[in-house]
């Protein structure tokens, strides 16, 4: 008899609160997670005190009753475990995994085309890497905890600090510039909206050691190339570009100390997300004069480089950098994708120069990707600075956009051959046929104990190219029967001639 209790499928929709104290294994029963109704009730009373929890976290579903068990079975109080993954996270059943792999393949292909090398980092990082004082949202959304050795660790919310850590670790042994890409999972305790989750995968491309705007131009080229490969056009999506040096110039105009720069950027990024008055209040608390606040708000509303030049003068670096990017964009052939928008500041503290964000032109979704120059991140980790620039591109918003535009690919299963013994006694022979084909690199599904009708249906479902039937009389003659499913052609072939 199975060691698992029978699953009551009608209970699968019930969602007990899972951030409770679960005993992962019952030593007595030696089987995985089931927990008692008593432990549900008493721990749920103390489990809802997280200060970051929003209404989003409140499950509107009633606590499930316990699964009735036969008296004396020893499982009177057990109930079905929540079959949903933790809130804001995803399972990837095969069809979702196919989509994810396909998307990652596009990311990898664009990275290869741009001649970037793949790198990887641990999802678990030291908390110190993410402690920043500028008040960024990301640092308040950390999944952080102490490990069993008493070390403060986090599930990384982004990848850039890990990349900076590796650049520092490699030191002078590497020759610059580095062009690195990575695809990895990131964790943020976010309020969930469409395309925003508590776990997401990010494709990052970063160029280390190039101070010139060429780096930004290359990165935008990569993003545009990706969109084009996915069938997205410049009338679907645009890339807004600005430079943090714009804000820097405004702060200089008002003699605001340089040390406030990162904090001011983080606050200013909230324009449009909270009211102007709230932003103004935060800026004044940070030490910005109300006159400067007015100046900042005015400049950030500009959407033309000429107007910006008229306000800041032509000798500020921001203007020169942005002009250079727009001029290179012409040569690359992607200028229709990019627009100047001074309100783009971005919410991460470490950006220092050009910043950019891709957005859907219908305005239905959050930013599709974002990045910029971060020339001073390394020195915040105690190293010498190296100019750096990059972007992060999430897997969630882009899939929403592809759905909206009807551009999701049709990704069925792809099996080359199905091998089926027509007789139970031929299981050894069928294994031999499957093994021979697999050695040749075919994807082979070996099926047995099914009716032929089921096998044909299955072949259709998995998009198999051929059905290879191992039958007694054919086998006696050293043959198998092959059915080509696309043409319905059927023939016999020698086993050693199967290709
Ligand atoms: P970020 O703007 O925080 O930048 O994130 C980059 C992208 O990751 C976003 O535009 C979005 O596509 C995706 N993303 C972020 N948070 C979530 C979420 N909660 N759910 C789904 N998708 C999300 C960074 O992380 C920088 N480190 C990027 C970078 C690399 N800058 C330089 N190099």
Round the mean pLDDT to the nearest integer and report it. Answer: 87
Give the N-terminus to C-terminus distance in angstroms.
Answer: 43 Å
Q: Could you name the ranges where pLDDT drops below 50 across 5 or more consecutive residues?
A: 1-67
Shape: elongated
List the ligand species. histidyl-adenosine monophosphate
Family: Belongs to the class-II aminoacyl-tRNA synthetase family.
GO molecular function, one term: histidine-tRNA ligase activity
EC number: 6.1.1.21
Keywords: Aminoacyl-tRNA synthetase, ATP-binding, Ligase, Nucleotide-binding, Protein biosynthesis
Structure description:
This protein has an eight-stranded mixed beta sheet. It has a five-stranded mixed beta sheet with strand order 17-16-18-19-20, with helices on both faces. The chain has a three-stranded antiparallel beta sheet with strand order 6-8-7, with no helix packed on it. The radius of gyration is 29 Å and the shape is elongated. Helix 5 crosses helix 11 (317-332). The chain has 499 residues and is α+β, with helices and mostly antiparallel strands. It has helices at residues 37-47, 94-113, 137-140, 160-170, 214-230, 244-253, 261-268, 276-286, 290-300, 305-312, 317-332, 377-380, 396-404, 427-439, 452-461, 472-476, and strands at 25-26, 31-32, 35-36, 78-79, 117-118, 124-126, 143-146, 152-155, 178-187, 199-208, 237-243, 338-340, 354-360, 369-373, 388-394, 417-421, 444-446, 466-470, 479-484, 490-494. The two termini are 43 Å apart. The model is unreliable at 1-67 (pLDDT under 50). The protein contains 16 helices and 20 strands. Strand 16, helix 14 (427-439) and strand 17 form a beta-alpha-beta unit. The structure holds histidyl-adenosine monophosphate.
């Amino acid at each position: 008899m199975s060691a698992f209790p029978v699953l009551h499928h009608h209970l699968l929709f019930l969602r007990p609160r899972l951030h409770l104290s679960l005993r992962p294994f019952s030593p007595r029963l030696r089987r995985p997670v089931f927990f008692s109704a008593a432990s549900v009730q008493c721990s749920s009373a103390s489990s809802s005190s997280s200060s970051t929890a929003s209404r989003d976290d409140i499950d509107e579903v009633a606590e499930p009753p316990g699964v009735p068990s036969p008296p004396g079975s020893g499982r009177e109080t057990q109930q079905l475990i929540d079959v949903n993954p933790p809130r804001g996270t995803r399972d990837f059943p095969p069809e979702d995994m196919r989509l994810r792999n396909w998307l990652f393949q596009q990311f990898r292909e664009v990275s290869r085309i741009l001649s970037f090398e793949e790198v990887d980092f641990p999802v678990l990082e030291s908390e110190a890497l993410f402690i920043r004082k500028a008040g960024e949202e990301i640092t308040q959304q950390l999944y952080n905890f102490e490990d069993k050795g008493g070390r403060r660790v986090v599930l990384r919310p982004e990848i850039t600090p890990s990349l900076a850590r590796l650049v520092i670790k490699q030191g002078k042994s590497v020759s610059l510039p580095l062009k690195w890409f990575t695809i990895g999972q990131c964790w943020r305790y976010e309020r969930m909206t469409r395309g925003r989750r508590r776990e997401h995968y990010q494709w990052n491309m970063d160029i280390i050691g190039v101070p010139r705007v060429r780096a930004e131009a290359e990165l935008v080229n990569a993003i545009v190339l990706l969109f084009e490969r996915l069938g997205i056009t410049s009338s679907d999506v645009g890339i807004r570009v600005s430079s943090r040096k714009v804000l820097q110039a405004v702060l200089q105009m008002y003699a605001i100390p340089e040390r406030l720069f990162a904090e001011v950027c983080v606050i200013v990024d909230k324009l449009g997300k909270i009211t102007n008055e709230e932003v103004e209040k935060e800026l004044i608390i940070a030490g910005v004069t109300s006159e400067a606040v007015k100046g900042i708000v005015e400049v950030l509303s500009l959407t033309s480089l000429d107007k910006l030049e008229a306000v800041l003068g032509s000798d500020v670096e921001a203007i020169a950098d942005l002009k250079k990017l727009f001029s290179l964009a012409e040569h690359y052939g992607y200028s229709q994708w990019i627009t100047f928008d001074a309100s783009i500041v971005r919410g991460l503290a470490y950006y220092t120069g050009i910043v950019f964000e891709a957005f859907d032109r219908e305005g239905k979704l959050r930013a599709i990707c974002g990045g910029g120059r971060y020339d001073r991140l390394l020195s915040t980790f105690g190293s010498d600075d190296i100019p750096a620039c990059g972007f992060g591109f999430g897997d969630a918003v882009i899939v929403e956009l592809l759905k909206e535009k009807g551009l999701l690919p049709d990704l069925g299963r792809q099996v080359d051959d199905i091998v089926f013994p027509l007789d139970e006694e031929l299981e050894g022979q069928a294994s031999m046929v499957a093994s021979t084909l697999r050695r040749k690199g075919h994807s082979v599904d070996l099926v047995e104990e099914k009716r032929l009708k089921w096998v044909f249906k299955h072949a259709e479902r998995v998009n198999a190219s051929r059905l290879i039937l191992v039958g007694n009389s054919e086998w006696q003659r050293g043959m198998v029967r092959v059915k080509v499913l696309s043409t319905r052609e059927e023939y016999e072939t020698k086993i050693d001639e199967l290709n």
